[in-house]
Amino acid sequence: MAVAVKVDEDLPAGVASLVVASGYEAKTVYAQGHTGMSDDQLWPIVQQERRMLFTADKGFGNIRDYPPGSHAGVILFRLPRESRAGYLRLAEFLLEQVKLEDIVARSWLFHRMRFGCGERKIVTAEAALARHRRGA
Predict the structure, then answer these.
(1) Nearest C-alpha neighbor of 66 from the set 108, 36, 12, 119
(2) Calpha distance 128→118 (Å, rounded)
(3) pTM above 0.85, yes or no
């Protein structure tokens, strides 16, 4: 199954270049002229194109609104301090560690636990929600 990705406007366009260099197809919200759209306007386009969404928009991390299995996948990038270079490093690490084919139709939270220490974690949104419910 070929994985296609849409890179949201809150991530650097270079993320799309990294996706393509990793063997996947990618389009950016910016290049398609979809900048400034609300989540409610953008989401049907992402769905229609059957693309996995790479975003830093926390709204897309809500698995009640975007339940896993109902879409091609959401990768939510989080950094303690947002930066273009940080998001590029995070995307590069993700694409080195994970085959996108293996995580289709899931929601993933991808972040650094402590900025600058090099510790990185890949966490499913479902696991994060379960930990939150347990009080962990």
Answers:
(1) 108
(2) 20
(3) no
